Every structure is written in C-alpha cells, then in structure tokens.
Amino acid sequence: MSWFNPYGLGVILLLMIPNVIYFAKTHETPLYRNPFLERAENVGRFSCFGFMIFNPPFTWFGFFFESALQVYLIVNGCLLALYLAIWAILFRNNTLFRAVAMSVIPSVLFLFSGIMLLSVPLILGALVFAPCHILISVKNVKR
User: What's the total number of domains in the chain?
Assistant: First the structure.
C-alpha cells in the first residue's frame, strides 16, 4: 500500500451507506446541540475519513507484522458486518444500545485501522472522534 488505501476507501463507502439511507428516510436532526463537541466530532470524523483513504508520506509506517493486512481486512470486515447488522435490525429503534453500538463500532474501526497501519494522523483523528461521537449519540437518545 502506498499513499492511497483502496481498502480504506471501501470501508468508508460501506460505513456511509446506512447513514445516507437513514438520513434520506428520516430527515432527523440531532436534538442535543453543543457547538464545541460538534466541531470536534466533525474534525475527527473527516480526519478519519481522509486518513483511512490517503496515507500522507512520513505520517504512517505501514503494517508491522507479516499477516497484518489479512488481520486488518478480517477485523474491519467483522466490524463492518456487525455495524450493518445492528443498523438493519434496529433501524427504527431509537435505543441507548443502538446509539452506543452505532457510535462505538466506527470509533473502534478507525482506531484499530490507525494502529494496524501505524498511521499517526488516523490514530489522533480517532481519539478526537470517538469520545465526541459517542457522547453526542448518547445525549441524543436521552433527549
């Protein structure tokens, strides 16, 4: 893998499909508003999206063991399958479990990918995204 990660692009596309469908069908807007958290979440989100797809030179070091690509693909595939299954099963249920699952799974996916690729910006983006996304998701359910 070089500066472009086709696997990361596939992960992002598959991760976004349910989100696009959900917002197209529900037109739901978040009830909980916190401008600082929302900005931090978006910075983290778009950092993760970008650094899952593009590997800027000198910011990532690649897989650090022989079968790391296979582990990367299997774990990300399992996380995506779990994400899509939970989304499909709980599409209409606005529960705390769904909110936590739908925010923790992509957070873990981004952090795991960053660690496997030894991508410093992806790890940092995931560390910003995860707490903000999880907190906002939980607060929206409680309202």
Answer: 1
